[in-house]
Amino acid sequence: MLGTRGSTDDRGLARDLDGVLRGGRIPEHLHVDSSNLPAFTRKVLGRCAGIRPGQVMTYSELARAACHPRSARAVGQVMANNPFALLIPCHRVVGSDFSLHGFGGGLDMKEWLLAQEGWRLKGRGRSCRLDGRGQRPEARRRRRGARAQSG
After folding, report:
1. Is 67 a catalytic residue?
2. What is the set of domains in the chain, with CATH numbers?
3. What's the predicted TM-score (pTM) here?
4. What is the DSSP string of 10-29?
């Protein structure tokens, strides 16, 4: 369930969601109630929520981040059934070869969302792959660590 803390203004909620769709941060007063979901699902969705605009993770990387390294297919099922797709960015999770896989809004929508975040894409539909720009979170950490060691 999606809700706002301390406000019932539908226009305000619409503005907040528009900001999120444009790549902004999720406002503090928006929250999702995931208490009725299984623990594994909550953990995977929580890790997925941390993928920032311009970043992607593979299903395997997300499984490892959720402390279930052999559960990439189960992670895929969680992403396919994400009840909070506007706030938990399952469109930022891709195949190990950076191909786009299923998305509740359809692959065209997943392509569009990633393109809005600056990704270049090759191909269409099931043969679509990321081609450039954004970064995978662990690649950024490696580069930062290398700079710290050399400086």
Report:
1. no
2. 1-33 (no CATH), 39-150 (1.10.10.10)
3. 0.73
4. HHHHHHHHHHHHTTPPPPTT
